[in-house]
């Protein structure tokens, strides 16, 4: 019986046909974004480090460059080329299915200005939990708590300025201000 793991117990990565091409495209795309970083993001005097408008984009794009370079390098190191042979249709299907999650993210970004950061985060984490096949109440509670913790971390502790949703305008003044500032 093969357990598909190495001597340390980590699962083996089985590379597929398009891994090298995908890794190269990701690295090229992230390098293009990285080259534009300094002209597209700002660093404002007097702002905290994590509250800088350019901090999170720079961190994200730097991570994209690093991890896509690692992925590309690992695709060249894989010695088992017989595992790489899958049909073109299967390969395209895998790539197209991943677009769904980019669409989920775009919907999240579009709905957040209307309903607010906290409600949008709660709606989408619970919906994605269901979409990924989880059905237990514990999974939904964990998803909702993760959304709540993320919103509180970003808005309260890191003081990231995310605009309040239009829905917040219908709240009483004292509650509205709290929601806009902290949730």
Looking at this protein, list some descriptive labels:
65% helix; 183 residues; mainly alpha
In short:
It is built from six helices and no strands. With 183 residues, the protein is mainly alpha-helical.
List the helices and strands and how they pair.
Blueprint: H1 19-40, H2 55-77, H3 88-115, H4 117-131, H5 137-157, H6 173-182
Helix pairs in contact: 1-2, 3-4, 4-5
Polypeptide structure, described:
The protein has helices at 19-40, 55-77, 88-115, 117-131, 137-157, 173-182. The chain has 183 residues and is mostly helical. It has 2 domains: 8-83; 87-183, no CATH class. Helix 1 (19-40) packs antiparallel against helix 2 (55-77) and helix 3 packs antiparallel against helix 4 (117-131). The model has no long low-confidence stretch (mean pLDDT 81).
Put simply, the count of helices is: 6
Which percent range fits the helix content? 55-70%
Silhouette: globular
The structure class reads mainly alpha
Structural domains: how many: 2
Oligomer: single chain
Mean pLDDT across every amino acid position = 81
In angstroms, what separates the terminal alpha carbons?
Answer: 51 Å
Computed Rg: 21 Å
Kindly state the number of beta strands.
0
Order of helices and strands: HHHHHH
- Beta fraction: under 5%
Summarize the main sheet. none
Question: Spans with pLDDT under 50 lasting ≥5 residues?
Answer: none
């Amino acid at each position: 019986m093969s357990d598909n793991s190495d001597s340390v117990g980590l699962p083996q990565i089985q590379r597929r046909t398009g891994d090298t091409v995908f890794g190269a495209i990701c690295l090229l795309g992230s390098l293009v974004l990285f080259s534009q970083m300094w002209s597209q993001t700002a660093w404002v005097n007097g702002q905290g480090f994590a509250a800088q408008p350019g901090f999170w984009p720079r961190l994200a794009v730097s991570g994209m460059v690093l991890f896509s370079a690692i992925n590309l390098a690992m695709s060249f190191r894989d010695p088992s080329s017989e595992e790489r042979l899958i049909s073109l249709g299967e390969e395209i299907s895998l790539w197209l299915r991943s677009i769904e999650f980019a669409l989920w993210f775009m919907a999240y970004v579009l709905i957040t200005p209307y309903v607010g950061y906290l409600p949008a985060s709660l709606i989408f984490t619970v919906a994605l939990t269901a979409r990924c096949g989880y059905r237990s109440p514990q999974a939904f509670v964990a998803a909702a708590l993760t959304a709540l913790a993320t919103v509180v971390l970003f808005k309260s502790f890191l003081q990231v300025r995310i605009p309040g949703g239009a829905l917040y305008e219908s709240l009483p003044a004292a509650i509205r201000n709290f929601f806009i500032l902290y949730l």
